[in-house]
Amino acid sequence: MSVSNRISDGVFFHAVIQGQSITVQLPPEITPALSGLPAASATFTGRDDHIAELLGLLVPGPDRQQAVLVAAVAGLAGVGKTELAVQTAVRALAEDGWFPGGVLFVDMFGYDAERLLSPDRALDGLLHALGLPGEHIPPTLQDRSRLYRSVLAAYAAQGRRVLVVIDNASAAHQVRPLLPTDGSTAALVTSRHTLDIEARLHDLNVLDEAASVDLLGQALRQARGAADTRVRDEPAEAAAIARLCGGLPLALRVAAALLADTPTRPLASLAEALRAAHTRLDRLHREDRAVRAAFDLSYRHLPASHARLFRLLPLNAGPDIATESAARLADLDSPTTETLLSDLARAHLIEPAAVWGRWRAHDLVRLYADERGVEHAVADDRHAAQSRLHAHYITTTADATEHLLSSSVAPPTRFPGWTAAMAWLRSEHSNLIATTTAVPPLGSPATSTALAMCLPDYLERTRSYGDMATVSAAAVAIARSQGDLQAEGHALNNHGYALREMRRFDDSIAAHARALDIATELDDRLAAGVALQNLGNAFRMVRRFEESVAAHRRALALVREFRDRNGEGSVLNSLGLVLGEMRRFDEAVETLGQAVAVVRELEDQRSTALGLTNLGTVLTALQRYDEAVEVHGEAAAIAVQLEDRHFEGGALGNMGNALTKLGRDDEAFEAHTRAVAVFREQGDRHAEGQALSNLGLVLVRLERLREAADAHALAVAIAAETGDRQGEGAALNNLGEALVETQALDEAVVTYTRAVEVFREVADSYNEAGALSNLGWVHFKMRRLDEAVELFGQAAVVFARAGEQGEERKALRNQARAHNERWLLRWDEYAEPLV
Asked: How far is CA 193 from the centre of its chain?
């Protein structure tokens, strides 16, 4: 008797009955695999690149094998991980031949303690979905996993490759038994954690503003129909809602649902409701959807030490926090803190910043963490934590500032040198400003006052005058509220300095005048000297030179009265500057020479370098170029010794200008090129722009005209980027000169016209008149003599208004020349030929 068993047209996993001529046939298609996939949302946007990347991982190769078998999508709660996975699965299924076996979907409920799905229970459901009856499913996890993987492998071998989507897993052990191992079946995994499952990791971020607004509009139209045009009609408020939701899709969908509830509610109403930070999470709640609830699930998963650090992080007022600062906040060592922060980042409750060692949180997560922090304020001792953080910022800022002020090579601080000190200050810039200007509970008056005393020197070196004005204004307000006149006067001097550099000269003069009044009221003659020197510097900027000299001479008398040699050197330096601008060069050289002598005697190298720089500038104006080169070279050498790269760049630029006057153009080119490199390395865009302008002038002399125009054009762009309108005007003037040399006269007209507009806007009459003259000469070259006559006339008027009689006469002579040329041209056109 012969026995024949044949299994065909299907996949069968169980005992085969032995018998004669028995045939077992299975249906050619397994349909249950598709039944568990959630419906894809009709409102989906801003994820095209993510979809493309994931599809690129899922596409089978030429032999229907797949290089990357598992893709793990991780991200913050509510960021749209599940939706991305579903959308990707739907598109993958639509591709011919990619997944003919369909898709398996399982929600692991990894962050919901009540519904958490164990891997063995998940496998039970998946095996049922694959068509296996319950009695054939083994009871143990290991056996279920083996059977599940065998079934998937068999489907793949039969040309019925399946896509597995494992959603909302919280740990690697939840996922590993569910991962295919046949080398062909692909899987998508989503989690709030970055899981170690040998997968290609894919981090999902929040939506940008444009996509957020688009999602808001889509969701409203989906709920209320195309007639709901509120997002289109209120674009500014739609953008505000997008920002207040932080681009988080869950928050945006809640916001859209709240708007859909009441079709007459304007977007402005919801935006206004969300602006109050302390109630924003309350507002982002509707029935079973709530941002706070989503965050709760992640928070409850944290061990106690992680939860405590998470709750303390919002005490930092700035946008991110360094590991070292977080360690001080939590009163832990840095290695332990880094481990905790890394774990929080893997849980996507925070994220690493662009630079390693810094961490930040989504705005809504930060609000949530602060709520939990307030609840646990006593247990966490939040007040002590905040005090530790503030003390860290104050002491470290003071240490770093020592390097900026010290005349020695390496003052005894935690920083090895100037470069390290500046790097720390730059990295903490936003935090220090935010901490200084924060009001309780994030800020404290004592911290604000202490930081406001330390920061001005750093802010001055980085030309962060807007921040300096903000910091000093906060210090003035605190001092006034406490009735501390001495502190108010000090803060007013810093405030006036910042306003001066922002070209708010009238406000600057008023601030310094008030500081002088306070010093007089307190009979603090040294403070009066400081206020007078600052007042004199402000007067110099508005070309009130006589008042400037008078203020400096009064200041000089006061500092000498108290034998304040540091103050004397500083005031002499300021006085020399104004004398130089008044073209009283001999007096300026003598005064600056005295300033240098004083600070040399004090062995104050930094002030010596500053005095030499100012002296060199006046020597250049006196055409004593060799001496100027020597002086600027010495200033540069001191800067190198002090590791002050920024000052070195300035000295090199000044030396380059003197070398240009000597006709040593190759050396000047080298000096200016080095200056550009220094400022670029330091990240000082403003100084880089000025150095590029100087370089461009030398390139013109070297007849490298295209390079000169490029350098000046970049200088113009940098000045505009940094908001330096004065510098923008100067760079435009220089660019115009380069364009004239290249015979690009039409471009030169546009450039000089812009320069005139800029100088007029900043009320710089002297340079406005110079730009008008330059524009007149371009028209003169183009034989547009009517325009030239008009422009030279305007220049003369503006020079006269600026009190520049010599320049006024030159402009009038130029006007006369253009007028004569116009007359001769017209004579040639209309005169009858001589017989």
From this structure: 27
DSSP annotation of 118 reads P
Q: Which residue has the tokens 């005169």?
A: 831
- If you ran DSSP here, which 8-state letter would residue 7 be given? E
Q: What is the pLDDT of residues 737-757, one digit of tens each?
A: 889 988 899 999 999 999 999
CB atoms within 10 A of CB 61: 9
Q: What pLDDT score was predicted for residue 828?
A: 53
In whole angstroms, what separates CA 714 from the centre of its chain?
Answer: 20
> Which bin fits 131, alpha (ψ -120 to 50), beta or left (φ > 0)?
left
**Residue from 124, 121, 146, 142 nearest 133 by CA:** 124
How high is the pLDDT of residue 146?
A: 93
**Is the distance from CB of 73 to CB of 1 less than 8 angstroms?**
no
> What pLDDT shows up at residue 159?
86
**Superfamily of domain covering 32-203:** P-loop containing nucleotide triphosphate hydrolases (3.40.50.300)
- Domain 32-203 and domain 294-380 have a common topology: no
Inter-residue contact 50 to 84 (CB < 8 Å) = yes
Sheet arrangement for strand 351-352: 321-322, 358-360, 351-352
- What angle (nearest 5°) sits at the alpha carbon of residue 293, between those of residues 292 and 299? 85
Strand partners, 321: 359
372 and 311 Cβ atoms separated by less than 8 Å: yes
Per the structure block, which two tokens stand in for 56?
Answer: 């690129």
Cα→Cα distances 434→230, 245, 267, 320, 444, Å: 35, 22, 30, 11, 12
Taking the domain 294-380, which CATH number applies?
A: 1.10.10.10
Per-residue pLDDT of 202-250, as tens digits, reads: 999 999 999 999 999 999 999 999 999 999 999 999 999 999 999 999 9
DSSP-based helix, strand, coil % in the chain, nearest 5? 65, 5, 25
Domain boundaries, the chain: 32-203, 209-290, 294-380
How far apart (Å, rounded) are the C-alpha atoms in residues 40 and 309?
Answer: 37
Rounded CA-CA distance 299/111 in Å is 9
CA-CA distance, 370 to 359, in Å (whole number)? Answer: 16
Task: Fill in the amino acid letter for 319.
Answer: P
Bond prior to 38 in cis (omega within 30° of 0)? no
Angle between helices 645-661 and 605-621 (to 10 degrees): 20
